[in-house]
Structures are given as structure tokens and as C-alpha cells.
Amino acid sequence: MCGFNLTQILLVSYFLVLCLASEGNAVNVGDRGQDDSVDPVIIVPGIFGSQLDGKWNKTTSPHYYCYKTVPDWTTLWLCFQSMVPKVIDCWVDNMLLNFTENSFRNRDGVETRVNDFGGTGGVEIIDKNGYYPYMKALVDGIAAIPGYEKGVNLRAAPYDFRYGANSPTGKLFLQDLRQLIEDTFEKNKGRKMNIIAHSMGNLYMLEFFKTVSSSWKKKYIKRYIAVSGVFGGSVKSIRALVSGETESIPRVLVDANAVRAFQRSFQSIYWLLPRKQLWGTDEPLVFTPDKNYTVDEYADLLDDAGFPDGREILKTLDGSLDFKDPGVDVYCIHGSDIPTAAQFRWKPKYFPDYQPNQIDGPGDGTVNKRSLELCKKFKRLKDYKVYPGIKFGEHMQILLNPDVIQYIKDVISETATSRKLKANDTELVF
Predict the structure, then answer these.
(1) Which of 96, 174, 212, 403 could disulfide-link 216, Cβ–Cβ 3.0 to 4.6 Å?
(2) Where does residue 240 rank: exposed (0-12), middle (13-18), buried (19+ CB within 10 A)?
(3) Tens digit of pLDDT for each residue in 124-156?
(4) Is residue 63 annotated as a catalytic residue, yes or no?
């Protein structure tokens, strides 16, 4: 079982801001339908927003005190006890992905699964002990609307957040998501879906909408509610790949290089790099004593940071970096006016193994403003809401904001009043 103490909770709370977090089968709702006066909801979480289980039978381990064999499913993400110094090496070794033959897979001997696909338990609380809520306030808020029932017409689609959408694992998730939508449609008397996505979940939804026809969308999708969408990438992901993202936790508490090892192995972190459509080739994002780097030079940056495999990993993203209209009604929500990493500057002898100085710009604390605002380009944007300040609009805090939860409830209940977009709100230039 996962133990915890206050220090560990604080550590992981900071760590989770990266992006900054039961069973693996869908909930069986049988043939019963719920109140057919409400439209079903399916929630797609962001990176680190799905519980992951693992079991393993390995021939090696990083330390003598790391178990080589765990025959029963146990918690991988999130387990506070695994985050303590030294023990974190055991956990990292099980979370790492291997990149071979241009493909990602678990470490040899390791099996993983997501929790409660089709239910909501795998996204409400990120740790099974219940100390780190994620979607719980939103889920409980929707469940309070008469007619909604968890696992019946209020469901979630957790996924293995280590992978990008164009990986075999990512493509399988997109197939499972389609099946979940169609199954929920049938079990609820043909009511169309409300899709609510957060953070990287919005990238997955854009990829999903590419895989289905206009007629399919018209039949199954009522609306798509995008919360804190990282549509154009996030500068913060650069630090994760170069030096490890630990949210300024001292090295004596968390080894950034250990964290960097598993972050570099996740295809999804590369998927979150700032897009060329938004950041110009004359706009350096990284400054080092020897060289500066732009969006055109990620491969060189990773080479110089001592990770040449990054060049090949970047090629695996082909086909998943374009920004395409989802072709459904969209409601866009995000925060603003919060200092957000815009550039990084490494001092002499700090690159790449020590943390850089951060130069801030506008955003929600994790995602840059220009990336969040890309939703204004959607052709069927019905409403656009911005919540300024850390308390109300920070990337994770926004999910706890009572006004945001009430707004989403109003939208799915069709009682919301849309804000008229100004003429220049959609004038974003690629």
C-alpha cells in the first residue's frame, strides 16, 4: 500500500504542476439507461491526470532494495511513498519507457494499465489514498445535477499519459474512446455526448476528431468543452527534457536528473513542446553560454544536452503536430495573468544538469497565453471564458474554481449565456 506524510504530499504537489497524477476495464452499465433528459458527459484528463497501475517481473533493478518482482497490480501513479529520496529510483525504473526501433514500450518485464476506464474513479483522485484531488470537484458538481450518475452518463476516459496520440498505445486509446462514446450513446437512449477535456487531453481530442467523419460527429457529439488546452505546446516542457521539471524543489529533496530520465522517456513531453506555428524561428526559447535555441532547433538542443535519442524521438511526432479544427461546437475555458515560463537561461556550467533561470511571460502558470488562445480559431466556437489570477485560473486550480464548475454545469444543462467575442478575438496569425 502507498504510505504518505506531509512532506511527501508537498513535494508531489509541486511536482504535479508540470504540466506540470480499480480496475482497468470499462464500467459495465448493462442495458440500463439513465434519465434521458440529460446529455452524457465524458471527461478526458490531462497529462499525469490518470491513475496508473503496474506489475513486474524484471531481471535487474537500480538498487538492491528495489523489488524485481511484484506479481499483483500495484499503484504506479500516484504513490507518495515512491517519491522519497533513493526510493524514487525504483519508481522511475518502472515508469520509464524504452525507445527502440522508433517505438515506445514499457521496460522489459513491466506491465501497466489505467484505472476505471468508463468510470470516474481513475481521474477524480490521482492517488488512491485520496489526498490529491484532480477532477473530483468537477465530477461531484456534475453528479449533483438531477439525472446524472457516475459510470452511466457521467464517465471518464483515462489513458497512459506517457504516450502521444500517434503511438500504438495512443491509437488504441482513441479506438477505446470511440467505443466508449458509442456505448454511452446507446445506453442513454441516443443522447449526444458532452466532451470535457483538460490540458493535454485537448490534444488527444483534436487527434480524435481527425479520426472520425463529420456525420459521426453530428450523430454522437453535442459539444466539446476545452479547459486549459495546451493547443500550441508549453515552454515548460523544454526544461523537463533538458534538466528535469521539479518545480524549483531543492536537489537535496528530489534528484532532478532522476526525474529527467523518465520525462525524457515519455513521448508525451515532446508532444508538448512549443509549436513552430506560434513561436518564430527568430525567437530564442533557450539561452546557454555557448548557443541559443529556437523552435527549429529542438534536436540540436537535445544533442547538446547529452541526449541524442531525442532527435529520433522528435520524428515520431510527425502527423500529430498540426492544428486542425475539431468540427464540433466548442466552449473554451482557461486562466490568464499568471507568470508562465516563456524562456530559460542557463548560467555557465549549469547546462544541462542544473536548473535554469526562468523568464516569465503571460499564461496560466503552465501553458503560455498564445497556446491557450488557439481555441479562438475554432470555426464553431460558441463561448470563450477567461479566469484571471492564480486563485481562479491557474492550470490546475481552475478545476477547483466554483465559478468554472458552475459554468460547465450551465453549459451542459444549456442554461449558460455566451459571451460575444470581439472582432479581434479571432485574429491569431500563424
Answers:
(1) 212
(2) buried
(3) 999 878 888 999 999 999 999 999 999 999 999
(4) no
pLDDT single digits (tens) 58-71: 999 999 999 999 99
Cis ω for the linkage preceding 352 (within 30 of 0)? yes
> Residues, the chain, total?
430
Dihedral sign, Cα of residue 361, residue 302, residue 321, residue 207: negative
Catalytic site residue from 50, 237, 371, 395: 395
CA-to-CA distance for 77 and 312, rounded, in angstroms? Answer: 27
Q: Is 371 among the catalytic positions?
A: no
395: Cα separation from own chain's centroid: 11
Quick count: other Cβ atoms within 10 Å of Cβ 193? Answer: 24
Question: Of the listed 50, 199, 234, 371, which one is catalytic?
Answer: 199
**Cell 504510505 appears where?**
3
Per the annotation, the verdict on 199 as an active-site residue is: yes
- Helix or strand or coil: residue 129? coil
* DSSP-assigned letters across all residues of 179-218: HHHHHHHHHTTTPPEEEEEETTHHHHHHHHHHTS-HHHHH
pLDDT at 7: 35
Q: What share of the chain is helix, strand, coil (3-state, %, to 5)?
A: 35, 20, 45
Nearest to 3 by CA among 130, 129, 90: 129
pLDDT tens string 262-317:
899 999 999 999 999 999 999 999 999 999 999 999 999 999 999 999 999 999 99
Joined grid coordinates for residue 26: 470499462
Q: Among the residues of 316-401, which ranges form H helices?
A: 369-372, 390-393
CA end-to-end span of the chain? 49
522519497: which residue's cell? Answer: 84
Q: Which of 106, 74, 105, 80 is nearest to 93 (CA)?
A: 106
